[in-house]
Structure formats: structure tokens, C-alpha cells
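Q: Start with the shorter request: fold the first protein.
A: Done. Sequence, then structure:
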Amino acid sequence: MGFLHLFASHVVFLFLSSSLVFLHGAAADQEEALRTYIVQLHPLGSTGGGDATSSDHDWHHAFLIKSVPSSAEQDDKRQWKPSSRLLYSYHTVFDGFAARLSVGEAAALRALQGVASVREDRRVELHTTYSYRFLGLNVCPTGAWARARYGRGVVVGVLDTGVWPESPSFDDRGMPPVPDRWRGVCETGERFNATNCNRKLVGARFYSKGHRANYPTDPSDAAARTREYASPRDAHGHGTHTASTAAGAAVAGASVLGAGAGEARGVAPGAHVAAYKVCWFNGCFSSDILAGMDDAVRDGVDVLSLSLGGFPIPLFEDSIAIGSFRATVRGVSVVSAAGNNGPEPSSVANEAPWMLTVGAATLDRRFPAYVRLGNGRVLYGESMYPGKVDLKNGGKTLELFYAAGGSREAMYCMKGSLSAADVAGKMVVCDRGITGRADKGQAVKEAGGAVMVLANSEINRQEDSVDVHVLPATLVGYQEAVELKKYISSTPRPVARIAFGGTRIGRARAPAVALFSARGPSVTSPSVLKPDVIAPGVNIIAAWPGSVGPSGLDGDARRSNFTVLSGTSMACPHVSGIAALVRSAHPSWSPAMVRSAIMTTADVTDRQGKPITDGDSGERADAFAMGAGHVNPALAVDPGLVYDIEPADYVTHLCTLGYTQREVFKITHSAVNCSELLHANPGFTLNYPSIAVAFKDGGGETSTVLRRTVTNVGAPNSTYTARVGAPVGVKVTVAPTTLAFAEFGEKKSFQVRVDASAAAGKDSAEGYLVWKQRSAGQGRRRTVRSPIAVTWPME
């Protein structure tokens, strides 16, 4: 489930169709010499940037004229004109443009006065009938949905692979009118026009210039034959799935070919959706993402949902972090996926402190599909194949086949690796890895196999992301896989049958942190704990395009309005929906207040009242795996206290990290003197809802004081008392220990002293700070919880 997997159930290489291939006549042979660059400029008119009265497009074109010779000046008359090199002009979340340049032209542009940075375009990857109920959302007059008006009046912008507008999840019956402030459009294109938008789907745009510029031009390439729409229409499914998870309408009788049946709803079913197609079959390019963010903020979205990203990189090189900063300044809540590179430490992506970063967790819903071996043993597995539920007898007994001792390709059931003579009519065991899980089932079916057992490797452990396979199949954990293979090798004719158990709810311990969910601590900002929270991200059922089979495979002719996917991509829109609910309940709140409400009300115990565990290990999940905990929307809409952050505070925070003035400008577009700023703010710490402290390993300071300020957003005349659970070996003191608020909106500050002088030989330690409201006859006593994480990073 790494970032190189487009979504968790498949390894899919993303490709563009020939209709989107970037061909430019006779200039095609120049293509290899040109690359896409994103150019950041100093503010218009400040230092040689051009005439402040000219349009942004003209301003950007002026820079290209200075660095790109015109065709008249070229020996090669086929060279493109400078104007043809400009891909995007950015206006809102970024000052600059994207253009096609040679290495030499990029260097020349970089040397011009008024240019802040020139960096090459970067490719990133894409990171429910029941999940809303698991989150405690229900139709109740006093519930979170009612108090937040189901998210009405809020627009959630989804940057992804587009949208399938005919999905019943985007039906606008019962939706309020489109907000008057909305400035978005429904962009026409291939099989998409203005009538595809409505009061639910209020906007749709697409961005392909970055892809067309970076993609191979050979039309004979196999990728060119992959179907794609040159429009906002989703040919892949990922975007439709995430958009419906965040704000899909209620759909009765939803299921995946009969499995997981129930009523589908998005987390904020009353919110509007705007789709920005920035990802295609071969990934998502930063130039397109920035263009989508630029339009989304200008259109008037309230929440941006980004189920995409890469590996941790410095913030001043991260286009998503840079664009999201400007979005935050303009009042937009930016929610992003943490990435699927877990359980490796420090694998979390989208680490910027102004973003809400989301990891993935499990549900208590299971799809059992048992393997009954010939020796009488029964192995637990899971599958969403729509087989007949028959736990007593199961299916037909078949001979088992596993390519032990054969080729590596056959063990992994790679396409074309299996011999019909070996597998025809048999139950084939396939090792997990290298190719997608659903692809293995297709390979078995093409070779004549009757059933597949997908066997987890040691690295996958007991992780159980299911798929809608094209043949009867089940996924077994690593322990079961070891026993299965041992049985196969113990007898000359091993046999087994599969018994499908349907859908089971409430019997599994949940939530638990998903094995694949990326972990902290943050590489770029160790004084900010990431991820922020976890949310449902395993086996999530949501809307699906009508042109794609539920397995996502090209050869799957079945059709379903819904399918199942797993990944932090699925967790992210759950939190985007919660952010929409909080924004609807509290329209004047800043993005930092919205994030604080979601974080400080998160759960750290599962549905059984026990500590949330890390995957299937049974061990307690730490703050680097789950952040503040598992989201609880019912509490988030009424948090009691919130930690607010002004945009200028993020600038000061970047200075505390040792960023240079130039690097801070690249991120924030603010010209600052860090020395002066830090001198004016001695002892500054970011007013973040979680508390993270990084001490140098083997020397340096062993104690620090952090300052925090909370705002009362609950009842007046409220008093809160501090309770501290100090990390092992670390002393934590809070002063004052009582906060009394006379009025709504009143602010109170406190200090947290962290003394780690006695904590020798540790890598990390964690605890918590809780502000507990005293009973005052006002109903629920609010609890405002902040995790405390202390690390000793190696120098």
C-alpha cells in the first residue's frame, strides 16, 4: 500500500490516453530537451517583476521572453515561441507560473531579478455504507449531523482523479441552493458538460497541461491505449470514491454486488462538492495540483481534500505545502492524507503544520471467507467476492496449487506466469506483492484457475484489505499463509474449499491503526506531531464510476455503483467531511480552530474501551502512529476550547526551524527577517493542539518551556482543570493548573514545562495533557486532550 500504489487494492501504473498526449507538430523532437518547471516570483512590481498594472499572464510571459529566445533568434526555426511554453499562470495560492524550459533556460530564468525559485515539476501519487455509523453519525435531533446542519452551506473541494457525476451519491434532491458566494464553474470536455453539475456537485474542472508536457509522445506506447477522459469525468474511480466519502448524498440499498449492503452516506451529506481533476493514470504533477488549488481557493471552497502526496521533503520544495499555506491564509481548511508508507518511522507526508494530516484506521466490519483444509483445519480469511454465504459446507473442494520451488513470477501469480496444465480447475495460492492483489486474481482466472487464496507475506502480517476479485478468492494473514503452505507441502494431494461468511459488524476490535498508515515523527518539523489524527481507511465502501468494474481491472465487465478501497486516501475525506460539519456549525472559525476541535476531541480508546492498538500487533498505538487519536465528529462540533493560530505565527515557526529568509519566502510568500522576528518573539512556540518536543541526542538542553493559548468556544463561566500523564522518565508541569473563563470567546494562556534530564537512553516517550471541564450543570463536561511526544533525534 505504498505511495507507488495508486490505491490500496491494486498496483496501477497511471497512463494517459492518446487524446491527452502532448504533441506539438514538428517540435516533437525538441520535447526531450524540455522539462516542466514551476517558477516562483517575488510580488508583482516589487523587484523587477514587471509593470504592476499588467495582468499576471503578461507579467509571467515577460519573464519567459527574457529567458527563452524567440523562433526568429533560433538557428532551428522549429523551436517553439516563448508564449507556447507557458502552461499555467498561478494567481491565488502561488505567485508564479509553470512552463516548459530547457535546463539552460531554467538556469537563465533563475538568475533574473524578481525570480524567487525555479524547480522542476514533481510527480506525486494518490495516497461508505457503514463508516459514518462507525463514527457515531446518525439521524438524531441532538446529534452532530443535526447540530452541524449536515454540513449545509459548506463546499468541499476534492483534488483527485475527477468525478462520475451520474453516481447516485451526487444526486441533489433535498440539497439547498448553491451558495451565492460560489464562483466555480462546471467545465465542459469529453463526455462532460454544464448539465452534469447540480446543487450537490457545484463545480468541476480538469488540469492536464502538466501531464501532457511530461508524458511520452509515442502514440504506440501501451499507455496511450488506456482510456481516459479529457474532462472532469473520472475514468479511474479514486476521485469519485473520495468525493462521495466526504460529502456524498444518502443512497439506500447500496452495496458492492450485494456485499456490505446498507445506506451509503458521506460524512457531510448536506455539503456541496467541487471536483478538481489533477490526477491521471500516470500520477499527479505538481504543476497541475497547484493550478487546481489556485482555482479552488478562488472559486470559494471551504475545505480542500487532498488524498495525494509524496515522500517527506523540505517544505520549501513541496508545492502542496506551499499552495496550502496560501489557502489557509484565505480561510480554507486543508485536509491531506498522511501516506501509505507505514509502518516505517518518519514516513509521514504532508507534514506542513497548517495542514490537517490524516492516518488510516480499521473498522469493526469484516468480510470473512474461511479456507477449510483437507486436514480439517480452518484458516480465517477475508473477501468481498459475492459468493454464496454457506459457513457450514462452503464451496466445492478443490485441489490446492502453490508454485513452491517454481519461478518467482508464478509464486506471485504475475500475468502469464501460470501454466494452465498446473492450475486449471484448482485453488491457486498467490503470494502478495509485486503486482496488485486484484491483478493476481485476473492472472489466475486467465490461466484457468477456479479459486485464489492470496497469502500475506511477513511484511503484510495480518493486514486485511479486501478486493472485489474477478473469481472466488480470499486473503489470509501471514500466520495462516505459513500454515497453509506447510499443509500443501505435507501431502501429495492437498485440497481445500472456501466458505464465504457475508458481512459481519461489531465482532472485531476497532479502531486500530492500519499497518500501511504512515508514521511520525515529522522529518521537516519535529516540533509538530504528525499525523494529526486517524480515521477510517480500511475496506471503505463508496461511490464508483459506471465505466469501471468494481475490481478496477480493465477486463472486469461487472458494474457496480460502489466498490471497496483502502488507504490513507480513504481516511482523508472522512476528516474533510468532519471539517465541513465543524465549518457548518461554526462558520466564523479559522482553519486552525477547526483542526483543533477535531484533534482535541479524538478518541484514544477503541469501541471496547481499550487503548487503540497499532495494527494487529496488540500493542498500544503511540502518538507517532495515531496523532491525537481517532476522530469523533460528535464531540468535534462542540469542543469547549480550541487552540487558534494566526497565519503570521506559522512564519515565526518556520524561523524557529532554522529556515533561511529565502526558504521562508518560498513557502509563505512573505519577506521576513528571521533574526528580528525571533528577537521580537523570545521563546516562541507554535500554538498547536498537540505537544511535540525534540531534544538533541547525547547533549544539549534537556528541558524546555512551551506556551499555549486556548479560546473558550463553549459556555461562559466555565472552568477547566489540568491533568497530566507525563511521558516515562520525563517531568511535565503545567501552570496555571486551572483556567476560568467568564465569557464566550475569552482566551487564557498557560505554560508547559518539559524536563527530560532523567530520561537517558531513550528514542521517544509520550504522555498527555487534558483540560477537564468542571461540572456546572451544563450537560456534558468537555475534555480537551493534547498528546505529548518527546523525541531524541539522532544528529
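Q: Next, the second protein, separately.
A: Sequence, then structure:
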Amino acid sequence: MENYDRNKARTWGAFHNDEQQQGPTSSGWQVGEPLRRRDPPNNLPRASQRKWNTKGRARQADAQDRQAVRLIEHCDNDAEARWRANQPPADSVRIPDELVLRDKTDAFGKYHETLARQHGTYIHSDHARGQGGSRSFGIWGEQDAVVATKGAIAHWIEESGYGSKKSARSAHFSKVVSLTPKLRERAERAWEREVRKQRFRRHPPMDVPFGAIGSFHWPMKEYRPEEILGASHEAFDPIRMDCSCYIVFIAALSLFRVMGKQTEVKASLQRIRQTCFQIAARQCNPVRLYLLHWPDAEQIPLFVYLKTYDAPATSSPELLEDATDKKSRKAPRGDGYGHHDKTLQGAQKQTRSSVEHLRNTILATLARLHYYRGHVQMRIRLATFLANQYMETQDDVYDLDEYETMLQMSQFTGEVTQELGDKATEQVWLPALQDATDLVTPSEATVHDLTSVKPVYAVAFVFSDSAGDYRLTVEWHEAYDETTDKTYFEIFSKKWTRLERDTSALTSLLDIALCDLSTSSAWQFDILASSQVIDETKLSPQLLAFSLNLAIDPDAATKTRRNETFVRFNPFANLTSFQQRTSYQYTLFNSDYTLELSRFQDRTYHSRDKGFPTTTVSEPRWSLTVFRKAWDAMLAGNERLPVGERADWLHDVATWFPQDIGPGSTEVDEKRPGQGWMQLLEKLGRVEGIAREVKEKIEEEEEDDLIGGMTVG
């Protein structure tokens, strides 16, 4: 960064001319290449030359296969680019102060700005104070669009009662109440601050001297700055306005010049550097691991066989994957228990190694997410592990050592089902949890009985879009109105996100399965993300109308009929999928972990016939998830993360996996921060124990029925 004495300060014009003749005078800030791809480690098992089954589900695209994602959702149009380039406006219009200082008609900001966007123009005022009760605004754009914008603004002024026909106020615009002198002065000061900030979004004046000029070399050869930051690098606008600095890009030198006061230039350079970290955070490859653990270290199988897994039934079997693909998804299961080379101590050591590797990988992944801008969530799910792409053998049977080696090969892929996996045991999970009074308690402090826990109703819609599908999630809670003595449903949360192209689900950043071969079950540790959280007011009119008209059907929700939806929505929307959930949430004893048991049902929409889509409806199934609401609270900061800044949560084990608190729990030991992680694993083991007990009970009942001469379907 070049520093100047106040008496020797140089203008941007003089500095730029010298630079064109002599080249850059400073190397500026040096930043390593955050997107440099490393070669794979050499210690992984080599891919086998034997034949592999590759008919399973395709793996999610890695970072190098993804396209660059812009850091901003709405880029400049041509009219705003002209304003940035300090070109004169095509026309001007005067707007009453009462409208621009107090207008809240449109959630985008001022209504005159909305009108300009609708006509493809840009409107701006450089006047800090009004004159004669109004202030002048310039309009940039094509002449026809400028005329249309000016006419629309004039109509708005007339309809608001501030034009020549003051009595002709329309019902479309609410009456604007005059500001009190104190509020007026406060609004004027806020307007002045905004005008001062906005000037840094434009190209710097060539004849103004600066106290310091800094340089930042663009470190990423894979992407041009305009691909990620916008044509005018408008993603840096928050940095420009917060730090009161001009930022321009010199394409010939592939660097940014930052101009302003010395302290502000330093702050801007730091935030530009951290913006590169934010870009790199989106390009990290997902972490996938398949680990084994032995709940009963004395029972080690000699062999592992692949058992065909039956997917949830649907109403349209012809639209499913073909039979070959379905058969390729198989659940690994241990068999042939007896004398084994793996000793009791060896099995216990492998379990300790797996859980330690799991913990370290989770924390390492979280450490990379401080700069991730977007929606992020972490969940733990109990379900069935399936092998999708695996090495073929005779009769699909492996020696245990052979199977363990295959898990480490890069060609192997697997997945953990969304449903618990055993349809018979799923139906009795809810009463089993309601009897587990020594493991869970109601999440609500006002509820004292596990059977009195009210469910949470949730839906997830996915809408097709060429730039990346939109995803809408909504949750309703049942509430009680004391005045009417009736229950009603209120929206607890609503969120819009944009998915990556060619995907219909959140992007996986962490995908680790901790597998138990004795039951084919696995604990899936997920970190899922979407790089764009969408403000509802910035949606298209069709999507906004869909969201506003969404309503829950109380009768269908409480009766939970087999295939009936409990939400009312527009069936003609451009939907690709829809999932509804009825969830029961409990708290694990002496902790803040939430155990959520959900009954869910999926609907997939295909090609449309005469306006109506063909729908595939899956049978209702059950899932089980464990998470902390504190995880969601911490990661919510990533959704609101400004450009060039860092999420301030810690990524240590004590923050994400705290020690137990409450009666009966061991005393918190600050010298053993990993104690909370081991306590979580102990709780997960107890939850898995309920699954085994439920399954054994059902098998015993089936045997009793067979002995009695009757079989149960």
C-alpha cells in the first residue's frame, strides 16, 4: 500500500497515468491461491482392477465440477452501470420529501427505485438536502425507458396526494403522515449519511487526492472477478460504503486499487482478502467417509453379505428407476460369527479410532465454514446404510478384511436412507419413545408427559428454475388462543434458498456414515448447505403469490390420513418435488440435544399433461434425527454474513458438543473438553439400543404367531 503525506497526496488520475507508463509501483497484498487443488493423498488403497457395480445413484458433483456462484443475487443493469461511470442522467424528476423520507410501500427500499427497476432504468439523488419540500433525482437508461419511468413516478406522486390534484389520493397508496420536526431531522441525517456512502459506489473522481492507495492482486486464475463479483464488481459495494473507499479493478494488471484514508484502505484490503476466503469456502470438495464401529466388540462377523433393500413403495412404479438399479442398492450385513483374527481389543481400538476420526473431521469441516455465506445445517440421522457402487464378488459375499478395504477405495460409494429402513419397526417407534422416560423429556417446559407432546408440521417445496431450483421450507406449530379458547396453527419459520444447478437437494459438505454391520444401520453425520438464501420480497410474482397463499389444513394435519396432504397450495406451480413432515421433538436427558421422530411423505412431479403434472406419491415412512438448536443458531450467522467478513462462532469440540448438565450428570471438567463428545456417542448408543429392542420384540411376536399357526402380514 502506498502511503502519502497530506501535503504530497496524489490524485487517482496522476497515479493511474504513471502506472500505465511504469507498471505497478507496489506488489500490494499478497494472497495465496485459495482455490489451488491438491493431489489426492498417496496412502489411500488403490482402486481394484476387479469389476465394480456402478448402477447405483450418481455421486454429487465435486467442487471442480460446480460453476462459480456470484456473491450477489441481483447485478447492475446497463442504466446503473452508466451511473457508476459518472455519465450524466438522461432526465430528472422531483419527488416530495415526504415520500422519499418515509416511504415503506415496497420492501426493496424506496418505491421510486422499484418503479425504475421495473422499467430497466436507475434513479438516484446526490442532494443531501431537499429544496422547497422536494429533491431532484436523476434517471439513467434508454430514452424510452426513462420517459416511462418518469411517467410512472409522476402517477405515483399524484396518487399519493402530492401532485397538482391533491384531493385525488388513490386507495392503492396509504396516506403519508407528516413527520414531526424531531423525526424529520433524524430522517434527514440518515439520508445525508446514505448519500455520502453511495458516492463510493461510483468510479473515483480523477482530480481528488487520496491519503492512501492500496493494491490487491486477484489470486484466482480459474475465475474472472466479474464472474463472481458482477460486471461492476458491485459485490464490493458494502465494503466501499462501510469503509468509505473507492475500489476499481485494473484488468491489465489483474489487481484492485483501493483509494481513501490510510486506516480505511487497510480495512478494505482486509475485507477483500476475506472475500476470497468466502469464494474458496464454496469450492471445497465434500468430505465422504464410511467408518465401522462395533457396539458389541465380542461379536465380530467373519463375512459381510449384501442384502437387497426394498425402497419405499410408490403410487407410480413405472416412473421409478428400473429394476436393475433398484437391486443394485444393497445393505451390507455381517454374518458367520465365530473365531476371528480381529480380537476384542482390536475391535475396541477400531471403534475408538473411528469415533476420533469422525470428531476431528467434523471440527475440521466446521473450521472451513467460517467464511461460507449461505444456509448451513448440521444433523445426525439414524437409518440404514446402503452400498451403491461396490466391487462385485460371487454371491455378493466378502471377507470382513476385504470389505473393510473396499470401504476405503475411491470407487466405493454408499448412502444412508432417509427412512429408518425397517418398515415394521418404524410403526412402533413413537410409542417406544413415549415409554423411554429415562432417555428423553418433552422439549416444551409446559409439557410434562411424553404422550402430550404436540407435533411440528413442516413442508419442503422445490421449484424448477434454469439458474438453480428454488427451495421453500415452512414450519407450523400448534398454538392456543386464550381469548377464543381455540387452537390454531402459526408459522414458526419460512425460508427460501436456491439450490445448485442440476440438483434437487441441498449440497453436501460433510457426509460420514458410522456403520454397524450387525444391524445394517448407521449414524449419518451431515452438514448440508445452500449458497444463496433468498429474500422473499425479491422473488418473482408467481413464487411470492405461492408463498403468501400457502395454508395448513387443520383437519388433515391432526388426522394424519395416509396419503392426504395437510397444506393447501397452488397445484399449477412449477414444482419438481414436495415433502411434508409431522415431527415429534424430545430432549435427550441432561443435554440440549433434540431427538426428532418424523413421519414424512414425498411427492415428485414429472412432465405435465394439459397443465396437470404427473405425480409420483411415496408411501409415508419414519425418520429419526438428532441435533442441537444451538447449532442452527450459530450457523444462522452464515446466512446474514456480509461480504468480506467471518462468522464469529468457535469450531472447538466444547462449543459444538458440550458436556452434560443437570441432575445426575457428571461435573463439567474444563480440562476434558472431549467429554461432551463421548457423552453424545453414549446417548446415540442408547437410542440405537431402542431400535434393537423394538426389532427383537417384533421378531418374537412374529415367531409366537407362527407357532400358533397364524402369520401376520
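Q: Describe the second briefly.
A: Residues 287-707 form one domain. The chain has a mean pLDDT of 83.
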